[in-house]
Amino acid sequence: NAGVTQTPKFRILKIGQSMTLQCTQDMNHNYMYWYRQDPGMGLKLIYYSVGAGITDKGEVPNGYNVSRSTTEDFPLRLELAAPSQTSVYFCASTPRGAGGRFSYEQYFGPGTRLTVT
Amino acid sequence: DQQVKQNSPSLSVQEGRISILNCDYTNSMFDYFLWYKKYPAEGPTFLISISSIKDKNEDGRFTVFLNKSAKHLSLHIVPSQPGDSAVYFCAASAQGAQKLVFGQGTRLTINP
């Protein structure tokens, strides 16, 4: 298994441009998450999904959009990029645990470092 | 509103000694806690966890202690090794929440 993969690894955007950060997992996990990590800060949840076709906002959703059309893929869309979106973005996934309950352990991708200038 | 706080941004420990990383939380609904370890240019990896029904969980050199009355947990690493140098994140979840809340992280440096 490749686990959680993210592309691209690095990207520089100009203010106002748009882009999609790709995230794919091959572990058949139900739950998927997008986080951003700013310098000296923890991981802030942007959006998450509990299954294909279902998404929900996290702590910092403004300026982002997501979709989940398949179990494997959970792309994050940035529209009208702003310098405040300069960050490292991590995608993560979690399997369904025993008895179908939420399993807390999250598996992370290697991250995408985004700079908006 | 920082629900999970790691008040020490950094910690330096000599190789072979004990490393103690601390984490405080404010939300009394949290019932499951995890520690993640992160190396530069990599994603975080799960290290150890503890349910609120326990006050201690041990896995090799790593032990997590939970003090529910103080809303405090700590990660003990004994003995500390150079490969333990990383950023450690504390995380918490409330039952049914299906998501985690992370602390700011503590950078641990193990000196030879």
Please summarize what this structure is:
With 117 residues, chain A is an all-beta fold.
Helix content of chain A: under 10%
Q: Which class of secondary structure composition applies to the elements of chain B?
A: mainly beta
Largest interface: A-B, 24 and 24 residues
Strand content of chain A: over 45%
Largest sheet of chain A: 7 strands, mixed
Mean pLDDT of chain B: 95
Q: What number is the mean pLDDT of chain A?
A: 92
**Cα separation of the termini of chain A:** 36 Å
Task: Give the helix tally of chain B.
Answer: 0
Helix and strand pattern of chain A: EEEEEEEEEEE
Helix content estimate of chain B: under 10%
Total helices of chain A: the number is 0
- Low-pLDDT sequence parts of chain A: none
Q: N- to C-terminal separation of chain B? A: 38 Å
Number of strands of chain A: 11
- Quaternary form: heterodimer
Computed CA radius of gyration of chain B, to the nearest angstrom: 13 Å
Order of helices and strands of chain B: EEEEEEEEEEE
Which structural class is indicated by helix and strand composition of chain A?
mainly beta
The tally of beta strands of chain B, per DSSP, is 11
